[in-house]
Amino acid sequence: MQGIFVLLLVAICISHCKAKWKELESEDDYLMLFGGDERASKAIFLGVYSEECMSSVETMAFKGANRNCPEEYLSVVRIHKQVLSPSMLQRLGIGEACSAMLHFSKDNRIDDYQITFDDDEKSLTEWINNQSRVVMQLKNNFSFDVKYFWKNEGAAGEVDSGTIQEGGSVNINSYLGHLFAVRGVGDQDGRLLTWFVADRNGQLLLDHTEGRLECYEDPATSFTQQACRNPEDALFEFAMALWYNKRVEANAYQPSLVPRMTAAGFEKHRLPEEMFRELTRFWENGQHRKNVEGMVGPCLNQHVAPSYVLHLNPHMKRRLDNTLKPMLSEWSNRTDLEQTSIYGIREYTEGASLLMHVDTVSTHVISAIVNVAQSEGAVWPLQILDHDGGLHEVPMAPGDVVYYESARLLHGREAPLRGASYANVFVHYKPREGWDFDWV
Q: Where does the record locate the signal sequence feature (predicted)?
């Protein structure tokens, strides 16, 4: 079942790797976002513009507003001023302004919004991030104490966020699109009871939502698809779809924001032989120390093809850094590269598939993939888009190293690995000067 689900996610990427914003054609289209009671059915970012200020709704800040929250919980829409009546423009507080961005929280009335007239990319992104904060009051309606856990996309998995006594309440500060699991304590210790997505301000009753753990609507599809399975599998697939939809938005948003650093965006070279021999010895001598790797995110199908990791010791990390930094500095023409991450040696197994993605823009800018080892006959080329969107397949042999602009260029290995084993090391750098992307 989970293997079929991953194939579905590949199809989503191929057909939906673009920002999910919508142009409204009329005032009636706008009113439909609120329904008959004039309350927002989900959170809304609304861009209102005139012809001379159309650039304000062409910013990546606006178009990528869904990058941290899928469209199931947030609508990003824009509308031309000329299709709105003078009374509606007055009601929205726009008046004679050339353009504006408005935010409505879920369940807010049509007159209850926040507004900004600032269309600077950085300032607008920070405003959107601030508007995406939510404060929820969780009310425990179970007949026993419960714990609630933030479902982190990364290796941390579930983060224990607190306990709520029977009948008690707690306020949490979160962001639109964050996913939480609720589990029992005491006699119910660890049992999954329900889950919820932070999608509004206000109170949320925690109870046995009818059908939640038996059937649910799959957020990965545009049509209603009921999936029935055990609770943990249902939550896993819900989380993977939620997180991957966020990645799809990042794929659409980030490449246009990040400046190009090199002519081609990637190049293949060879690791110096002495360094490669040392790395190979470390890998071969450490087979008994490698461990099954924890969850690394929705792009890698670890639940189908487990990955393993052999952690590098400080000496090996220094050796790799001292070897690769000069090589990447010369390639990128940046003398101020700062190493931000060196993963251990990750071993992929037969059937592994890595969906197309971009890396973290604040830390993973100029990067290297080193192929340490692969089983005989293994076939698993790196797929990467160049600066013009052209797709390239780059085969690698042990000792090969690929330099690439990992925050800008979409990359992955979507075709399943043919072969028993494929082991890589990833090293990431960012410029020490002039790389102000912590706001993204």
A: 1-19
Prediction pTM value: 0.78
pLDDT 10s digits, 384-432:
999 999 999 999 999 999 999 999 999 999 999 999 999 999 999 999 9
Closest Cα partner for 306 from 422, 135, 174? 422
Number of H helices, E strands in the chain: 8, 26
SS3 content of the chain, % helix, strand, coil (to 5): 25, 35, 40
At residue 156, the pLDDT reads: 60
Q: Is CATH 3.40.30.10 the right assignment for the domain spanning 13-132? A: yes
Q: Confidence band (pLDDT; 50, 70, 90) for 154? A: low
- Give the start-to-end residue ranges of the domains of the chain: 13-132, 135-250, 258-431
DSSP state of 415: S
Mean pLDDT of 301-312: 94
Q: How far apart are CA 154 and CA 158, in angstroms?
A: 9
**Between 3.40.50.1000, 3.40.50.360, 2.60.40.780, 2.60.40.1220, what CATH number should domain 135-250 receive?**
2.60.40.780
Asked if pLDDT for residue 316 goes beyond 90, the answer is yes
**3-class secondary structure, 348:** strand
Domain 258-431 class? mainly beta
**Residues sharing a CB contact under 8 Å with residue 377, sequence separation 6 or more, in sequence order:** 418, 419
